[in-house]
Structures are given as C-alpha cells and as structure tokens.
C-alpha cells in the first residue's frame, strides 16, 4: 500500500523495464548472459571462426599437444580440436534449445490444463507426470534415446520428453497459485471463455518461473546431450559434439589429456553461463511488480 | 421510491452453502456452513448492505447470489427466473447483467493487461462493436470514473489503490450490468479515498439505474450509501431493516453490539456498550438454538434450545420496507442495548468536557459548528 499517485509523465511506460534494470544490476547474471551470447555467436559463426575443417583427418598430426598451429591440440585422427569444439557448440546449443522447446511445448499445456480444470483431468495428468518424474532425468533420457535409436534428433526428443514432467508440474503449481487471484474470478464473473482466461490471464501471470526453469533446463539438456553422445546415443561420428569428443578422449586420458580437457571445459562454461543467466532471471522476475 | 408490488431483481430462497471442511481420521469431514438457509430479496434500484464480522458468510452470500459459486441447496432467482435452471448460454448472458467490484484493487486486475484492455474486454465480449468503437467506449468509461483516457496504455501497477478501484469499477460497468455487487469495495482503500469511491458508486448508481448489493463491515460506509441493511451472523440473517431504523434502534442484540462497537467521536452521544465476549463460534459446528446465544448478554434458557425465525416486526410487510429480526425477545430488549445513552464516566470528565466546549466556542465564535457529515 505504499503506492502513490505519481504525476502522469513520471511513470515509466512499460513494466518490463524494471525487471531489466534489476537484471543488469546483477553482475553474475550479466556474466552468464555474456557467456551464453558468446557461445551462440560461436555456434552461428562456426565456419568463419574454425581455423580448420573439423572433419579433416591428418595422420601426421595424431594426438599432438597444443601448439601455435593447433591451439587446443589434435585428436586421435589428427583433427583440429578447436575446430571441432567450435562446430560442436552447434550440436550442444541446438540440443539444449530444441529439447527444452519440446519439453515446454508439451509440459506447459499439460500443466495449464491440469491446473486450471482440476478434477479428474488433473488427477490423470498428474499421475502420468508423477510416473515420469519417478525416473531420474538422465536414466529416462538414456532409456528413451536407446529406444528411439542413436541420432542427434532422437537424442533431443528423448531429452525433451524426459524434461517435460518438470515443466508440467511447475506450470501446474503456478496455475494453482494464479487461479486463486481475484482477477481470475473476475474474468469468470463476466463470462469469459476458459480458453481465453487460460491464454490471457493464467499463462502470462504464470510464465516468469517457467522462463527461469527453461534457462536452467537448457544447461541440464546440454549435459544430457553430452552424456548421450558420450554413450554413443547422440551426435554420430564423424560429426563433432562435446559429448562424443569426451567419449573418444576417455581412451587417451594419460597420453593426450588435452583431448578431454577442452570439451569438458566448454561444457562447464556453457552450463555455468546458462545457470547464471537463469538465476539472474529468477531474481529479476521474482519480486512482484506493482 | 420503490414500488412495493414490484418483483425483486434478485432473490435468494433458502440459500445454503457448505464448504467441505478438513478431513478427519474417522467419520465424515465436517462441513463449514458458510451460508445456512438464507432468504433475501433485493429490490430493483435499492442499495442493500450485507454486514457482519468476518466469517459471518456475507461475502459467500454475495457470491452465491451472483452465481459465482454453486449453492449446496436453495435457489437464486434473477428477475423471477431460477438462475440454476437456466441453459448455459442464457446463464452466461446473465453474467453480464451482474457485475462485481472486488475488495482488493491490487489483486482484482490482471497485471499483464493494459487498462484499456481491462476495461474494453467486457465490451469485446458483447461482440457487437468495432475496434475503434470499443476503444472509444473504454475511454468514455475511464473518463466517467475519473481517470484520463490516455491512462489506458498503462498497466495496473502504475496506479494507486483508489485509481485501481476506479479501473475495477469501469470494468464492472463495461458489460452494462443491472446489478453491481460490491464486495467490501472500499475497505482496502485509504480513508481519504474511500469517500471518493463511495460517492462515485452512488453517482453511477443513479446514472446507470443500478441496483447495489454491498458487502461491508465499515458501518460508516453502510449508513451513508445503503437503503436497507441485512445483518448476518454465522451464516444467517439476524436482522433486516431500513438503514436509519437499524442505526437508530437496532433490535437484535447482535446488531446492537455491532453498532455499539463503532467508535463515536462525540462523548455526549456515546452510547452504552454491549461488550461481546469471545469469538464468533466455528461455522463447522454452529451452536444449537439461537446461534448468537453463546455471546448474547441477554441469553435465556429457551435461546439454547430453540432457533428463532426471522420474523417481521414492523412496517407493513418486508416488501414495503418493514423490518425483520430473528430473536425470541426482541420486543423486551428493544432500547435496552445500544439505544440507551451511556452516563459520562465521571464528574471530573464532565467538568473537563464542559470547559473544553466553552473554550472552543470562545476561540471560534464566528465559525459555524462543524456539521457532522456522513462519515466516509
């Protein structure tokens, strides 16, 4: 109730700006955003950045330590590791984003319907979601990936389906909270159709934590993709991905440690970037505006 | 003003709402009897207030009468038609004729919609206006409730509580309702703003020919704006009376206590206090007999056994503006409670008061005595 009637012009026009300012004040969040932006730029501009062809083998340069010509060294087939890292960023980011998009695309509608309508729809959907949640995320993803067959596309589907129940449950909880607000009752009171209330009233007000969770889930999906690729269920050779690079590198941990260090560091940095970004978004979006 | 023969715009017939209570380990879950067999008629064009302390079921009754929740038993009649028996389409159309203004202006507006959308949505729902006409109508409504049309591009959080309540009123009016339920429409607002919003509601009532159903616990607001008052206690109406009659001479002991609890600024007019002891009993297990007997200062044995009915006591029938009370002994108790003036606490106090009055008269001889206007 500290709200005061400000003179008309003194008020910023858009509510978004306040969240943005809070986000920019958070240094860790900005660092995360910068790291993420950097990785996205690398993935998009991969052909321009990579010094060599990532698939070109050279039997004279097998497992060479980092040098001026090959900054991160070469792998067991003489391919340039830096170039493979740069192209591997594509697979990792793509897998992260697309699998989270799949999870959002299924999980959010399930949560909306389940939370808004309640009763038996909620009971049925919630039991399905709980059954999926009872399986650990990575185990489920590996099982689904093995079932669907090894390819990057199938890995994305497997990861997306495994991450779906988290979004369904989060959305459902948010919907239950939003549903108790007066403005939902007001919307019903004037006779608005349910579909309209869900899309215009419930979803926008439930979205903030879902966005945060999505950012964090991208980090999880990158690790999952790396894990699946490590097990041979994701990106197929010779195409590069961080996980499959680690998979090969594990055989040479003593002889050529640089083969595992750089993809591992890349995964670490990307995941950290997304996590910081997600945490920053949570802090920026959390305080109730108004 | 109101024709006695006219059909009531809204009527509750033995309306009951039980909420499922906490589940117990053994036995059936205890139901909370929020509203228990209430019959009430709202006349076209009047302002009817529902009062009572929290937990008396006044908000639930208001919501039941607007078809915002299904009753456990009983019926709601709108213009003589049973609302519960209407087909879905007609029922939805009826929603437009019954508007609601919420208590908390900070929770009742969708924070993600612009004010123009909030006010324009009910107009859009009617579906017979072009986009430009809708905007024009929304602007006109905003202007009518005292906001500027250019405020339409902003979001609710950019407004103060009073302004938000005006937005809520504009939205409620946008569907052109016949009856407006105010669910404690001003109790969340600053006192200085309350009067403005009450006056706005009264103006709009006259202008749009509305019927108002006001749920409130602020007695000042009720006295100022309502024609009739229904006093509720534990899910039942204990007294129904025209506002002046109730305030001058409350009949039911609970109504007497309720009125006596309102602070009175003038020490000379202060009335004897009926102090209520204890809390309102749990609505899961209302006391047998008269529900008020656990706290009534005039309780007698029969009160613990027999539940008094709401019976007409004066004024040629309820429809003609008479009053009704649910108490076995109202005739004996009338005037015994809140009507009687309290003696001044002590002779010393009387001396000080006389001195103060003489001084203030001497200090400002030209100024007229402050008129005791309606409280906000």
UniProtKB/TrEMBL annotation, chain A:
Gene3D superfamilies: MetI-like
TM ranges: 28-50, 93-117, 129-148, 154-171, 210-235, 255-278
Subcellular location: Cell membrane
PROSITE patterns: ABC_TM1
Membrane topology: Multi-pass membrane protein
Keyword Transmembrane: yes
CDD domains in the record: TM_PBP2
InterPro entries: BP-dependent_transpt_permease, MetI-like, MetI-like_sf, OppC_N
Signal sequence bounds: none
Family annotation (SUPFAM superfamilies): MetI-like
One Gene Ontology term from the biological process aspect of the record: transmembrane transport
Assigned keywords, A-Z: Cell membrane, Membrane, Transmembrane, Transmembrane helix, Transport
GO CC terms, sorted: plasma membrane
Top-level taxonomic group: Bacteria
ABC transmembrane type-1 domain sequence ranges: 89-278
Family: Belongs to the binding-protein-dependent transport system permease family.
Protein name: ABC transporter permease
Species: Lichenibacterium minor
